[in-house]
Amino acid sequence: MKARILAAVTLTAAVVVVNPGVATAAPPPGACGRTEPASPVVTELPWAQRTLDAQAVRRHGTGAGVVVAVIDSGVDSDHPQLRQPGKVQRGQDFFLVGDLPGSFDCVSHGTGVAGIIAAAPTPGVGFAGLAPDATILPVRVSETDTTDGAAQAIDPEVLARGIWYAADHGADVINLSVAGGLDNHYVRDAIRHAVNRDVVVVAAAGNAQEGPVPGGPAYPAGYDGVLGVGAVDMAGNRLPSSQIGPQVDLVAPGGGVLSTMRAGGHGYRDGTSFAAPFVSATAALVRSKWPELSAEEVTRRILATATPAPGGRGSAAYGAGMVNPYRALTDGLSTEEPAALPPVRRPVPDPGEMRLAAWWEGSTADARLVAILTVATAVLGALAAIVLVRGRRTRWRPRRAVLPPAEPVRDDLPDEMFLVPPPPAES
């Protein structure tokens, strides 16, 4: 096995908003480059939030009390929608040397993921997180070059350390917006540790699909106990780059979705990296409403309440379908097995009919034609015999219908009824 896992963190062109006068997170000196350019604020509700009915979802749950670890490029804790006290924890940086926090982000990838999960509703801003009261634990394991958008390989030991750290520091849900085609025992062991600690692990399915033929598995989405997430566009169709394969458990919005950017901005993003946090947020909502549920039970509820997708349930491209946080929070599911159906009583077949049916099925077309002609000849012969007998009886004369006798005219009426009265006498 090779010892590298490629991260699905390819940055796309983003429209960014910068709020003047807002202080940005303070990374180590020289850690981050220049700030992204400014752009107007988006005030409308984004399509992904409309599709998932985020406003109705918030009436049933907000993710309060749940910690979601974002193992990524860090999280800008000074973003206006993420800087509420306690929303973004200090976290840990495993990418740079030294005891540094994970609460800064040079490339906006992790900040975008965290915003989809837990960005606070803000007046005048259409975007908000799906679980706005969840807490973010930022774990920094990568940094992508923002000049050319190239993906950067993640050291598997660094990624594994980040997963171990999150599982041991209170994470209820782990979001991994990374994907690659190489299995690695460090990461596999870390995932197993998190699953054993009853953590819901969500991972991107990957953005390397070429054509309609399913490829091999992608990791860490392909590991046991991990919810693998593919990406769909506004029409509900799979993004061409969203990978097809056994790692896809369900899909979520991932084409042109709006999210938070570093330095107080917002931007449109594409890919399974930004579909995964919609599922992580749904897991946070379910864990907040039913804290007694295990991670496996949370996963089963999310899959059972998914909306059917074009590929059909269980397809390699769409998995169980589109994540549906509203149904995940409101559907009443039963853990009981369906009631047994009564036994079917089958009629006892008639031996004669069975022999006849067997002969009919095994006979040739000529034999069947002979049988049909034989039966028809017999029927016509019987009819001819009846006609011959009746014709001889009547000497071939047509028979006339016999009418019933007419009713006799009544002659018993009194004669007075037929007398004409005399004219009146003249005076």
Automatic annotation (TrEMBL):
<feature type="transmembrane region" description="Helical">
    <location>
        <begin position="369"/>
        <end position="389"/>
    </location>
</feature>
<keyword id="KW-1003">Cell membrane</keyword>
<comment type="similarity">
    <text>Belongs to the peptidase S8 family.</text>
</comment>
<dbReference type="GO" id="GO:0004252">
    <property type="term" value="F:serine-type endopeptidase activity"/>
</dbReference>
<keyword id="KW-0472">Membrane</keyword>
<keyword id="KW-0812">Transmembrane</keyword>
<dbReference type="GO" id="GO:0005886">
    <property type="term" value="C:plasma membrane"/>
</dbReference>
<keyword id="KW-0720">Serine protease</keyword>
<feature type="domain" description="Peptidase S8/S53">
    <location>
        <begin position="63"/>
        <end position="321"/>
    </location>
</feature>
<dbReference type="Pfam" id="PF00082">
    <property type="entry name" value="Peptidase_S8"/>
</dbReference>
<dbReference type="InterPro" id="IPR000209">
    <property type="entry name" value="Peptidase_S8/S53_dom"/>
</dbReference>
<feature type="active site" description="Charge relay system">
    <location>
        <position position="72"/>
    </location>
</feature>
<dbReference type="InterPro" id="IPR023827">
    <property type="entry name" value="Peptidase_S8_Asp-AS"/>
</dbReference>
<keyword id="KW-0732">Signal</keyword>
<dbReference type="InterPro" id="IPR015500">
    <property type="entry name" value="Peptidase_S8_subtilisin-rel"/>
</dbReference>
<keyword id="KW-0378">Hydrolase</keyword>
<dbReference type="InterPro" id="IPR022398">
    <property type="entry name" value="Peptidase_S8_His-AS"/>
</dbReference>
<dbReference type="GO" id="GO:0006508">
    <property type="term" value="P:proteolysis"/>
</dbReference>
<keyword id="KW-0645">Protease</keyword>
<feature type="signal peptide">
    <location>
        <begin position="1"/>
        <end position="25"/>
    </location>
</feature>
<protein>
    <submittedName>
        <fullName>Type VII secretion-associated serine protease mycosin</fullName>
    </submittedName>
</protein>
<dbReference type="InterPro" id="IPR023828">
    <property type="entry name" value="Peptidase_S8_Ser-AS"/>
</dbReference>
<keyword id="KW-1133">Transmembrane helix</keyword>
<dbReference type="InterPro" id="IPR036852">
    <property type="entry name" value="Peptidase_S8/S53_dom_sf"/>
</dbReference>
<feature type="active site" description="Charge relay system">
    <location>
        <position position="109"/>
    </location>
</feature>
<dbReference type="InterPro" id="IPR050131">
    <property type="entry name" value="Peptidase_S8_subtilisin-like"/>
</dbReference>
<feature type="active site" description="Charge relay system">
    <location>
        <position position="273"/>
    </location>
</feature>
<dbReference type="InterPro" id="IPR023834">
    <property type="entry name" value="T7SS_pept_S8A_mycosin"/>
</dbReference>
